[in-house]
Inverse folding.
């Protein structure tokens, strides 16, 4: 469960980061 939360957090960070960088 904890690993799943981390994975979701990292995935969300990548998605937000990608939008921020205009990818």
């Amino acid at each position: 469960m904890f690993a799943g939360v981390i994975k979701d957090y990292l995935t969300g960070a990548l998605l937000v980061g990608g939008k921020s960088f205009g990818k």
The chain has a mean pLDDT of 80. The helical segments are 2-20.
